[in-house]
Amino acid sequence: MKTRWVTVWMLLFVSGCSNGDAYELLVSSGSSSIRQPEAQYEHQYTIGIISKVDNIPYFNSVKEGVLEAAERLKVNVLYEGPAVADAKGQRVIVEKFIQQKVDAIAISANDPVQLAPILKQAKAAGIVVITWDSDTEPAARNLFIDMVNPEVLGRHVMDTLAWNTEEHGSFAIMTGSFSASNHNAWLKWIQAQWKEYYPNMNLVEVVATNDDPHNAFIQAQGLLRKYPDLAGIIGNSSVGPPAAAKAVEEAGKAGDVAVVGVSTPDLMRDYLKRGSAQVVTLWSPKKLGYLTVFLAKSLINGEQPGDFQYMPGVGTIRMRGSDTVIMGEPIDFTRENVDQYDF
Fold it and tell me: For the chain, what is the HEC assignment?
């Protein structure tokens, strides 16, 4: 039973890696044709996009896709994130966007409960509300854009660690935030896969990085000191794997402590090549930004997405229920294939 399941998922991810156009770049790093978020288009919509935190590589890549969509779809976009990944900072931005009377707000929610009241206010004001990357309460938004099926991702990430530790030893998890709905969903399925399939592995601790690279590095160093026989670390948000890999390198344990998780190929390229990380898994954040703007404009126009609908610049989406879009399948990045990707 176990062997069959693993084989199926290996085929799924190999298939994802072999699809050459599944994650084509929407924006080149040297492009000069992208307009700034404040670029204005006459008689068009304004969409406010809110990230979890400002100026980390993952959300910077999302922003590139947002700006590409704004250019192609002829809409105005305002892209902001708080300096610290918390609900308070996001609430201030939502309030500002309501006052500016934007047509839609799309937010990666740091806390599903704390942000629900202000998002309901936005809906009451006639603003379309979308969550992307991380959800809020369903009553507080019109649509949620999920990058991948959380069960697929969580179970697979646990498998990647097990494959690199021979299914033995102690491991730790560095999650982004204990309040973020996406991190909690992935964490749930990581632990479900561990409990069901890996009896010879022991989860010693789960720590939160608050999506802060410096804090993530400190947490990783602490785990290595506290558990000298640690076999592996899972990074459950984009800042976790690079911080863990750096800590493993500095401790002289590259190759002895496996590092896997959710992060971008650009952040992990050197660590993968040096062997201080083994595999990371993600989707295209640029496509996520592009899809968010595309669907925001569609909802403003009264158009609902459909199951198996093809989205230009993104691909075929799936629906979970009537209010959740699944963008696509995740992909693994390893030493062998990481140079094929640039985001």
Answer: CHHHHHHHHHHHHHHHHHCCCCCCCCCCCCCCCCCCCCCCCCCCCEEEEECCCCCCHHHHHHHHHHHHHHHHHCCEEEEECCCCCCHHHHHHHHHHHHHCCCCEEEECCCCCCCCHHHHHHHHHCCCEEEEECCCCCHHHCCEEEECCCHHHHHHHHHHHHHHCCCCCEEEEEEECCCCCHHHHHHHHHHHHHHHHHCCCEEEEEEEECCCCHHHHHHHHHHHHHHCCCCCEEEECCCCHHHHHHHHHHHCCCECCEEEEEECCHHHHHHHHHHCCCCEEEECCHHHHHHHHHHHHHHHHCCCCCCCCCEECCCEECEEECCCEEECCCCEEECCCCHHHCCC
pLDDT at 342: 85
- pLDDT per residue as tens digits for the range 122-166: 999 999 999 999 999 999 999 999 999 999 999 999 999 999 999
Separation CA 84–CA 305 (nearest Å)? 32
By residue count, the chain amounts to 343
Q: What is the CA radius of gyration of the chain?
A: 20
Q: Please give the Cα distance from 241 to 246 (Å, whole number).
A: 9
**Cα dihedral 297/301/304/306 (nearest 10):** -70
Confidence of residue 312 (pLDDT cuts 50, 70, 90): confident
The DSSP bridge pattern shows strands 104-107 and 201-208 to be unpaired
In terms of Cα–Cα distance, which of 238, 243, 210, 236 is closest to 110?
Answer: 210
Q: What is the mean pLDDT of residues 91-114?
A: 98
